C-alpha cells in the first residue's frame, strides 16, 4: 500500500488521483497531511499540489459526467468526513473505467455514497445561507461567526456576495479557523485569519457598535409581535429550524 499525503485542498486531492494513475498504484490510500499512519509494508508519498495535474483530472471528469455529479464530488469533499478522499477516488476510478455514463447507477456504492453525502452538505449550505446573521463592527463593516458541521464557506459565499454587494463583510468559520472577507471596493473575496487570543466575549462587547444592540432589540420585538401563540407548532418549527442553528438567530438569543 502507498499512502498519498496531500495538503487538504481539493486541487491537492485531484493531484493525488493524477499521481495514483500515473504510478499505476494498485492499492492507494489518500490522507491529509499530518494524518498518515505508520503502517508496516507501506510507503508514504507527500504529494505537492499541482494545478495543471489537478485540472487534467477535472477535465477528464467533465468529459464523462454532468455538472451535477461534478458538484456532488466537490461538495462531498467539503464534508471532510473521514475517508472521503478514498471514496471520491474510487468513484472517479469507476467513472473512468466505464465506457458508459455511470453517474446515475446508484447500485454502485460510491455513486450512492457520494450522492448522499453531497445531499447532506447541500442541506448545510442551504441552512447557513438562511441562518447567517451579520453584526455591525465599526461604522461600515459586518461580521458573522459560524461553525458548520461541514466546510460550507466556499459554497455559501456566492449567495452573500450577490445579496450584500454594497457592504464589507466577513463570515468566519470558528471551527476551522478561517474566514471569507468580501471587499465592496474591489468586489473581491479573500481568505482571512483572525487572532482570537483575547477573550471572545470581551472582544465582542468591545468591538460591536452601540447601534447593534438597538437593532437586535428591534428585531426581537418584531418577532414577538408577529408570533401567534395559539398557532405555535414546536415540532414543525424544529424540523425547519433545528436547535443547533438557534445560536445564529438574534430572535433566539
Helix fraction by DSSP (H/I, runs of at least 4): 40-55%
Our estimate of the beta-strand percent is 15-25%
Could you give the order of strands across the largest sheet?
A: 4-5-6-7-8
Structural class by sheet pairing and helices: alpha/beta
- Kindly report how far apart the N and C termini lie: 51 Å
Verbal overview:
The radius of gyration is 22 Å and the shape is elongated. Strands 4-5-6-7-8 form a five-stranded mixed sheet, covered by helices on one side. The protein starts with a strand and ends in a 13-residue tail after the last helix. It has nine helices and eight strands. It is α/β, with parallel strands linked by helices. It is about 45% helix and about 15% strand.
Short account of what is shown:
By secondary structure, the chain is α/β, with parallel strands linked by helices.
In terms of topology, how is this protein built?
Elements: E1 2-6, H1 10-23, E2 28-32, E3 43-46, H2 51-62, H3 67-78, H4 84-97, H5 109-131, E4 135-137, E5 141-146, H6 153-163, E6 168-173, E7 178-183, E8 188-192, H7 200-207, H8 210-226, H9 234-240
Parallel strand pairs: 1-2, 1-3, 5-6
Antiparallel strand pairs: 4-5, 6-7, 7-8
Q: Could you list some keywords that capture this structure?
A:
8 strands, 16% strand, three-stranded parallel β-sheet, five-stranded mixed β-sheet, 253 residues, 47% helix, single chain, alpha/beta
Amino acid at each position: 500500500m502507498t499512502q498519498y499525503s496531500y495538503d487538504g485542498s481539493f486541487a491537492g486531492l485531484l493531484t493525488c488521483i493524477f499521481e495514483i494513475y500515473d504510478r499505476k498504484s494498485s492499492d492507494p490510500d489518500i490522507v491529509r497531511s499530518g494524518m498518515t499512519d505508520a503502517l508496516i509494508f507501506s510507503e508514504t508519498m507527500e504529494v505537492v499540489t499541482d494545478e495543471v495535474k489537478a485540472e487534467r483530472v477535472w477535465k477528464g471528469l467533465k468529459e464523462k459526467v454532468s455538472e451535477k455529479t461534478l458538484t456532488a464530488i466537490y461538495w462531498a469533499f467539503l464534508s471532510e468526513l473521514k475517508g472521503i478522499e478514498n471514496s471520491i477516488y474510487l468513484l472517479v476510478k469507476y467513472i473512468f473505467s466505464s465506457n458508459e455514463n455511470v453517474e446515475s447507477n446508484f447500485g454502485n456504492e460510491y455513486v450512492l455514497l457520494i450522492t448522499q453525502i453531497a445531499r447532506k452538505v447541500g442541506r448545510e449550505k442551504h441552512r447557513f445561507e438562511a441562518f447567517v446573521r451579520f453584526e455591525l463592527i465599526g461604522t461600515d463593516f459586518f461580521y458573522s461567526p459560524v461553525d458548520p458541521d461541514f466546510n460550507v464557506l466556499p459554497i455559501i459565499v456566492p449567495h452573500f456576495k450577490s445579496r450584500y454587494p454594497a457592504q464589507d463583510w466577513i463570515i468566519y468559520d470558528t471551527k476551522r479557523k478561517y474566514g471569507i472577507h468580501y471587499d465592496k471596493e474591489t468586489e473581491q473575496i479573500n481568505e482571512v485569519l483572525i487572532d482570537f487570543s483575547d477573550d471572545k466575549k470581551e472582544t465582542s462587547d468591545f468591538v460591536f457598535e452601540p447601534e447593534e444592540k438597538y437593532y437586535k432589540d428591534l428585531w426581537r420585538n418584531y418577532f414577538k409581535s408577529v408570533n401567534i401563540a395559539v398557532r405555535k407548532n414546536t415540532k414543525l418549527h424544529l424540523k425547519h429550524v433545528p436547535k443547533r442553528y438557534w445560536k445564529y438567530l438574534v430572535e433566539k438569543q
